Amino acid sequence: MSENIEKKWQKKWQDAKLFESDPNDKEKLYITVAFPYPSGAMHVGHGRTYTVPDVYARFKRMEGYNVLFPMAWHVTGAPVIGIADRIQRKDPWTLDLYENVHKVPKDKLPELADPINIVKYFSTEYHNVMNKMGYSIDWRREFRTIDPTYQKFVTWQANTLYKKGLIKQGEHPVKYCPHDKNPVGDHDLLEGEGVGVNELTLLKFKCDDIILVTATLRPETIFGATNLWLNPEVHYILVEVEKGQSKGEKWVMSDDSYYNISNQKELKIIKDINPEELIGKMVENPLSHEKLPIFPASFVSSEYGSGVVFSEPADAPADYIALQDLKQNKELIKKYDIEKVVEDTEPINVVTVKGYGDIPAKEIIEKLQITNQDDPKVHDATEELYKTEHSKGYLSERFPKYGGKKVAYVRDEVKKDLIEENIADIIYDFAERPVICRCGNRCVVKIMDDQWFMKYSDEEWTKKAKECLEGETVIPEEIKSNFDYYLGWLQDWACSRRVGLGTRVPWDKKWLIEPLTDSTIYMSYYTIAKYLRNMDPELLNDAFFNKVFLDIDSDDIKIEPELVDKIQKEFNYWYPLDWRLSAKDLVGNHLSFLMFAHTAIFPKEKWPKGTVVFGMGLLEGNKMSSSKGNVILLDDAINEYSADVVRLFLMSSAEPWQDFDWREKEVKGTQRRLQWFREFAAKVEQVNGGNLNLTNIPEIEVKSNINKWMIAKLNQHIKNSTEALEVFQTRKASQEALFLLKKDVDHYMYRIQHINNDDEEVKYVLSILLKNWIKILAPFTPHTCEELWNKYGGEGFVSEASWPEYDDSLIDEEIEKSEELIQNLVKDINEIKKMVDNDVNKIHIYLAPQWKWDLYKIADEIGKPDIGQMMGRAIKADIYSDKKEIANTAKKISREMTKTKYIGKIDEAAILNDSKAYIEEECGNEVIIHTDDSYDPQNKARNAMPYKPAIFLE
RNA sequence: GCAAGGGUGCCCGAGCGGCCAAAGGGGGAGGACUUAAGAUCCUCUGGUGUAGGCCUUCGAGGGUUCGAAUCCCUUCCCUUGCACCA
C-alpha cells in the first residue's frame, strides 16, 4: 500500500522534473554529500548520510531557494581490485559476504570477478535505492569517476596543481612485497593487517674501519649506552653504503635486516661477518666517544631493525635482564674473555620518571618477575616502560643541552642533531611482525623515490587552507578546531598509485592518481556535468576547463563559444558550494584536501562556505559493519517499513553528527507515529464534514483561549523546527515538527472534548493545523505528505509549496501561561483530593489580590530572592497596609520566583471562567471562583499567590 | 601518548546558571476501549507526606553563586582519529 503511494509520487516528481535544477532568478543553494564508493550494498547507515542533505534540500526548496542536490559514484581506487580478485579465486568468506550480506543474486556473482562490474553493479543498485528513498537528486548530473569526461577533468585539475608547483616528486616508505615487486595494501596481506611502519634512528658505532649500526625508537637513551649486543646465533654481514649521507661507510648488520634495509638504501654486500670475532671488541659511542664493549645476547632479533642493538640497561628492560643473564653466565664470559668489562658494566641513569627510581628497567623486571631475557613478558615490560617514560619522563639534569626536558620533546631534538652530525641515519621497519604478503613472502618497507606528493606541508598553502576554514560555517562547531589542527598537521600526501582504477598522472603515465586526490573539487564538475555527459572527451582539454572554471581565454578551446559560455555561466551560478556533508572520519583527509584544493585552484569567492560532519551508525547498540555482517540493508528496511518511516526514523533518532542507533522497536514506534498522523488528517476531514479543502480555509477569528493556545503552540513548533533545520538539526526539527507538536495536539483534542463538535473555531484551528503540519513534515516524509496534501485539496506538489511562516505575535506568553495555570490548578486540586480523606462537595478558588501582583513585580525587577530589598521597595511604594503580611508573602514569592517565570499580571478570573467547565469535569466537583474572601471558612484565601490561586475543598 | 568529544533516571537521549525531579522516545505498571488479542487513548514509573509540600539525585571530590545537571579546578572512566586507505 504505502509502497504504491511512494512509487506513485516518485514517478510524478520525475515526470514533473521537479528536482532538475537549472539556473534561474531565484537565490541558489548548492549542497553536496560525499559520493559513495559503491563496493557493496547500501545499508541504513548510508541511508542516514544521504537523507540529511535531501531533507535540507527539500526544506530549502520550500523556503523558495533554487536548490541543487547532485549525486555521483566514486569508483576509483584499489579495494574493488582485491574484492574482484577474491571473487575470482572463489574465496569463501568473500562469496558469502557478497551473497548473504550484500545480497547479490547468485547468478550475478561471477560477473563481479571484474572490478568494473562491481562498481557498475553497486552504483546502479545505489541509484535505485536512492530513488526508492525519494531523494530529490538531479540525476542529469550523475557520473562515475572513471568516465572519460571526468578523467579529463581530473587531468586538468592535476595539471593545474602541477603547474603551480604543488605536486612534487619525493620519497616515501611503503609496505612492499619484494616477490611481487609491488606496494601492498592491507587487503593484500596474509598476515599483519594494520601494522604500522616505524621510523627508527640508526646510530653508528665505529669499530676500527667498520661501523656497527643499531636501530632504535629511543635515540635519547644513547646517553646511557653501556655496550652493544650481538646475537652469536645470527648471521651478520658487512655492507657498503653506496648512496646518501652515509655513502662510503661500511656497516655491520644481520642479513635478515639487510632483506628489509636494502629496499631503503643502496647497499653492496662485502662479506660475511662472524659475530664471535666481534664480541669482546670495543666500539666508540658516537656522541660521547667513550669506548663500549660488544657483548653476546640471545634476545636480539635478526629481523628487527639492523640485528645489532645498543644496550641501555637503565631504561630498556631487555637490556637490563640480558646484562644480568650475562653476569651470571660465567662460562660465556670466559669464552669471550670479557670478565672485567662485564663486571664493570652497570646501568647509567638517563630518564627520571615519577614512580620509579634510578633504574626503572630493574624495577619493572622485578615487578613482572622476569627471570631471563627470553621470557615473553620482556615485551610487555618494554611496552609499559616505554609508554610511561615517553609521556611522563624527563631526561636527567646532568646531560648538557637536553637535560631536564621532557623525553617526548628531547627525542626529536636528539634525533635531528644526531642526523645532522652524521652520527645517525634513518631506517624504517614494521612496528610488529610478521607482515606476510598474500604470495607468502615476507614484506619489507621500501622507499619509493619516484612517488608524487601533494605538498600539503607547504606553509603558504596551509595558510590559505586555514583561511578557507576560517570563512566556513562548520557544523557541529566543535569540529572546527579539529579541522584547524588537521590542516596544520597534514604532511605531504602521496598522491600516486600503481594499482587500482583511476586516472593517469598526465605527465608520468606509469602512475595513477590516488583516489582521495581525484575527488577534491568534483563538486564543481557537477555544476556542468549535464552538458558533458554525451560529449566527445577529446574536446575537453585543459583550455576548456580553464575557460569554464577560471575564465582564462585560449585559442585551443574546441567547443563552440556559445556553449562554453552557457556552461561557464552555469558554473558561476551554482558555485561556490554552500554545504558539504561528509563523515567524521574524513575530516583529516578528504574534507581537508577539499579546502586545500579549492584554495589552490579557485579564487576566494569560489571557496566552500559550509561543512557538516556526520557521526556513525549503530545497529541495536553495536557498530554497523558490512564485513561483519552487522547491517540492515536500506532496501530491506524500505520494503519492511516504507521509505518515509525509514527517513523519519533516521532523521529523528540522532542529530547528523551524532552516532545513531537503528533499533527495531523504535523504528516501529516511528511507524506508528506516522500512521497516527494519517489518521489525524482523516479525523480533521471528518470534523469538517468530509470536505476539507486545504487550499481554501475560510478565515475566522479565534476567540477562546484553548484555540488560541493551539495556534500559539503550532507557531512555536514551526518556529523551533525551522530554526533547527537551518542548522541541520534534523533530530530537533523532527521532534518539534512531529513528536512535540503531537503531544500538544493530543492535549488540545482532549481539551476540546467538551466543546460542541460543530464549532467553527475548532474546525478552523484543525484545518490550519493540518495544512501547516503537512508542510513542515514534508522534508522528512515527502511521500506521505504529498499524498495527504493531494487528498485534502492542497494545490500542486507539497514539495513545491511554500514553507510556513510562523507568526511571533501568535506565540503568546500569556496564552501559554493561562493554560499552564489551568493545568497546574487541576493537578493541585486532584493532588490535594488524593490526600484528604473526607468527601469533597465543592471546590473554592481564591485569586491573589492586586498588592501581591505588585510585590511579585518588584521581586522580578530585583531579579533575585532578596527579601530585604523587596520589603524596602514594597513599603516605599505603599502597596499594602499590613507589613507583616507583605513580609510573609515576600518570603513565599522568594521561593516561588525561582520556580515560576514572571510575565506580568494576567486576568486569572477571566481565564478560569473560560475553562470552568473543563476544570469541573477534570475534578468532578462544582467549582466556585471567588474574587473576594467573603466566604472563606478555613481562612485559605490568604494562600493565593499570583499564578497560584488558593484552593479550599469543602 | 597526542588531539577532539563525552559520562544525565531501568535503557537511548534532550537540557548547558533559576519555570529542573529534569523534554521526547523505548521498556515497565495500571486504567479506558475490545468477546479477546493487537492497535489506540489516559495515568503512573527516585523517595516520602492525611492541603498543593518536603527530602535525595545528573561519574567522583572540591570551589564560585542568594541559587549549579548546567560555570571553574582536581580526579576516574568511556568513545573516536593519528594517514598513504575509501
Structure in words:
It contains 33 helices and 31 strands. The protein is α/β, with parallel strands linked by helices and 954 residues long. The chain has a 6-stranded mixed beta sheet. A 5-stranded parallel beta sheet has the order 2-1-24-25-20, with helices on one face. α18 (542-550) packs across α19 (561-574) and α23 (664-687) runs antiparallel to α26. The structure holds one RNA strand of 86 nucleotides.
The stretches of 5 or more residues where confidence is low (pLDDT under 50) are none
Could you give a short account of the major beta sheet?
6 strands, mixed
Question: How do the strands line up in the largest sheet?
Answer: 11-9-10-7-6-17
Question: What proportion of the residues is helical, as a percent range?
Answer: 40-55%
Strand segment count: 31
The end-to-end distance, rounded to whole angstroms, is 58 Å
Radius of gyration: 38 Å
What share of residues are in beta strands? 5-15%
Q: Average pLDDT, to the nearest integer?
A: 89
Strand pairing plus helix content: what structural class? alpha/beta
Describe the global form. globular
In short:
By secondary structure, the protein is of the alpha/beta class.
List the helices and strands and how they pair.
Blueprint: H1 2-15, E1 28-33, H2 44-62, E2 66-68, H3 79-88, H4 92-101, H5 115-132, H6 148-163, E3 167-177, E4 182-183, E5 189-191, E6 197-207, E7 210-216, E8 227-230, E9 236-241, E10 250-254, H7 255-261, E11 267-273, H8 275-278, E12 282-284, E13 291-296, E14 309-311, H9 317-328, H10 330-336, H11 339-344, E15 351-352, H12 360-367, H13 377-392, E16 394-395, H14 407-420, E17 424-430, E18 436-437, E19 444-454, H15 459-470, E20 473-475, H16 479-489, E21 493-494, E22 496-497, E23 512-513, H17 522-532, H18 542-550, H19 561-574, E24 579-583, H20 590-601, E25 610-614, E26 617-619, E27 622-623, H21 634-641, H22 643-652, E28 660-662, H23 664-687, H24 705-726, H25 730-751, H26 760-777, H27 782-791, H28 813-835, E29 842-846, H29 850-862, H30 867-877, H31 883-896, H32 908-914, H33 916-923, E30 926-930, E31 950-953
Parallel strand pairs: 1-2, 1-24, 7-10, 8-13, 20-25, 24-25, 26-28, 29-30
Antiparallel strand pairs: 3-4, 3-19, 5-18, 6-7, 6-17, 8-14, 9-10, 9-11, 12-13, 15-16, 19-21, 22-23, 26-27, 29-31
Helix pairs in contact: 1-27, 2-22, 3-5, 9-12, 12-13, 15-16, 15-20, 17-19, 18-19, 21-22, 22-23, 23-26, 24-25, 24-26, 24-28, 26-27, 29-30, 29-31, 30-31
This protein binds one RNA strand of 86 nucleotides through strand 3, helix 13, helix 16, strand 21 and helix 23.
